[in-house]
Write a structure and sequence with these properties.
Layout (H helix, E strand, L loop, with lengths): L1 H21 L2 H4 L2 E6 L5 H16 L3 E6 L5 H13 L4 E4 L8 H9 L4 E4 L9 E7 L1 H15 L9 E6 L7 H19 L2 E2 L7 H4 L6 H15 L10 E4 L2 H13 L9 E2 L6 H9 L5 E3 L2 H16 L21 E4 L2 E3 L4 H6 L11
Parallel strand pairs: 1-2, 1-3, 3-4, 4-5, 5-11, 6-7, 6-8, 8-9
Antiparallel strand pairs: 10-12
The structure holds beta-D-galactopyranose (GAL).
Length: 358
């Protein structure tokens, strides 16, 4: 009797340890490598923190790294370490979408799936999935905002505008700038919108590193060259693809004497704190809210599915070709944010407290 009790207990303990050994820690301890481009913009700190928290809450171990201040070799070295350190999945937001081909060959050779996060990684078949916001819609919302604010369909114009986008190595700018120009180009073609500088191409409008300082100095040059100012040539609008660039434009315009009363329409993206303060002060007109908590949650779901051998949920299999074919994507929905709806979007949802924006 005693003997059989002992063997039942032994069997139970053995069965339990087998279960724990195969299902518990082995799965729960899977390490995820998260590579973000920079710590110098609020956006990526938030993305990194959200993902780390959500992955850890789901039982994963996280190796979170930031690529210095947008330094490609640093990002490459960090990804190499993630691969050799046993990460089971890599989640990467590339500094330069075309600079990870070689390092990701290693990931592929070792069967490590790669999720491109927010920015598509180009020219490598190592990328399994892409999780982002609908980047073309971001640009479209920005373009529509300018069109509506200037009443381009009803007012005679002509209206002066200058154009700013982001880093030329970031594939997203093709969609931000492309989406905005898809709305604005017909008005430029008809002469209702005029770009006095003549700087109308994506490359002419680019801002390396999405740098606030570079955007500021380009805007200062445009002000000087075209005589813009509250008492000079009227500047009706400035298209900016994101907030870090918009901040530089705001600095230059304020430096030239513009105030909330005569400020040109100025777009942005990310709802960064500095931009939200500018929006409340009247020195930026709008931003695009991309709730990074939603994107992080989507990526955790994707990774879960991949590690369980299931197909992750995607909602776009047509738009994002990285040069090796279409990458199945999940696109989250961006919305525009102004002084009129920021409370509902940002405060009521717990993204910020009112105090953070004052
Ligand atoms: C883009 C991103 C934007 C913005 C920008 C600068 O790729 O989609 O939200 O943050 O980079 O970091």
């Amino acid at each position: 009797m005693r003997k059989s009790f002992v063997s039942v207990v032994t069997l139970f303990v053995f069965a339990l340890s087998v279960c724990v050994g195969f299902a518990g820690p082995a799965f729960a301890a899977a390490r995820i490598g998260i590579s973000m481009p920079t710590q110098s913009l609020q956006r990526w700190n938030q993305d990194g923190a959200n993902m780390k928290a959500q992955f850890e809450a789901a039982g994963y171990e996280v190796d979170l790294q930031f690529g210095g201040d947008n330094e490609v070799p640093v990002q490459v070295a960090q990804i190499e370490n993630m691969i050799s350190g046993g990460c089971k999945v890599l989640v990467i937001s590339a500094i330069d979408g075309s600079s990870l081909t070689t390092v990701l060959e290693d990931a592929k050779a070792q069967g490590i799936p790669v999720i491109a996060y927010d920015r598509l990684i180009m020219n490598t078949d190592a990328v399994s999935y892409y999780a982002t916001f609908d980047n073309f819609k971001v640009g479209t919302l920005q373009g529509e905002f300018i069109r509506n604010q200037l009443n381009l369909d009803s007012d005679a114009g002509p209206f002066n505008i200058e154009l700013f986008t982001g880093d030329p190595g970031d594939n997203n700018i093709n969609f931000f700038f492309g989406g905005a120009m898809h709305i604005l180009q017909p008005y430029i073609d008809s002469g209702k919108l005029v770009v006095p500088s003549g700087q109308v191409t994506r490359d002419q409008a680019a801002t390396p590193g999405w740098s606030t300082e570079r955007a500021q100095s380009r805007m200062e040059n445009l002000i000087t060259a075209n005589g813009y100012g509250p008492n000079g040539t009227v500047l009706h609008a400035v298209y900016s693809s994101n907030d870090s660039v918009a901040n530089g434009i705001t600095n230059a315009l304020v430096g030239a004497g513009y105030t909330a009363d005569n400020f040109p329409i100025l777009t942005g993206q990310d709802c960064d704190v500095t931009s939200m303060k500018n929006i409340l002060a009247g020195t930026q007109s709008m931003s695009i809210f991309k709730d990074t908590r939603t994107l992080a949650a989507q990526v955790v779901k994707m990774v879960d599915a991949i590690l369980k051998g299931e197909e992750p949920e995607v909602n776009d299999t047509e738009t994002y070709d990285n040069g090796t074919g279409i990458i199945p994507s999940f696109l989250c929905d961006p919305v525009f944010c102004t002084v009129d709806n920021y409370r509902e979007l940002l405060i009521d949802s717990g993204y910020y407290t009112e105090d953070q924006l004052r």
